[in-house]
Amino acid sequence: MGKIIGIDLGTTNSCVAVMDGDKPRVIENAEGDRTTPSIIAYTNDNEILVGQPAKRQAVTNPKIPCLQSNV
């Protein structure tokens, strides 16, 4: 059987899971979390932040542009 992947693009959080044998397994993100906040931010240096780093930037530096799906 081919590989199966599921993607949940939620309005608050998103996550990805794969079938590991006969059981689904949620893949952890780079920070070790099973869900990622559905938000991106752009820094003054044109860096793109995704997930928790973007959420932290939105709190600590509210003047940078952020896009969040549930806003």
UniProtKB/TrEMBL annotation:
Q: Which residues form the signal peptide?
A: none
UniProt xrefs under Pfam families: HSP70 (PF00012)
Q: Which residues cross the membrane?
A: none
Q: Does the keyword Cell membrane apply?
A: no
Report the Gene3D superfamilies cross-referenced here.
3.30.420.40
InterPro entries registered for this protein in UniProt: ATPase_NBD, Heat_shock_70_CS, Hsp_70_fam
Name the keywords, alphabetized. ATP-binding, Nucleotide-binding
What's an example of a GO molecular-function annotation for this chain? Answer: ATP-dependent protein folding chaperone
Under the heading SUPFAM superfamilies, the entry gives: Actin-like ATPase domain
Belongs to which family?
Belongs to the heat shock protein 70 family.
Q: What is this protein called?
A: Chaperone protein DnaK
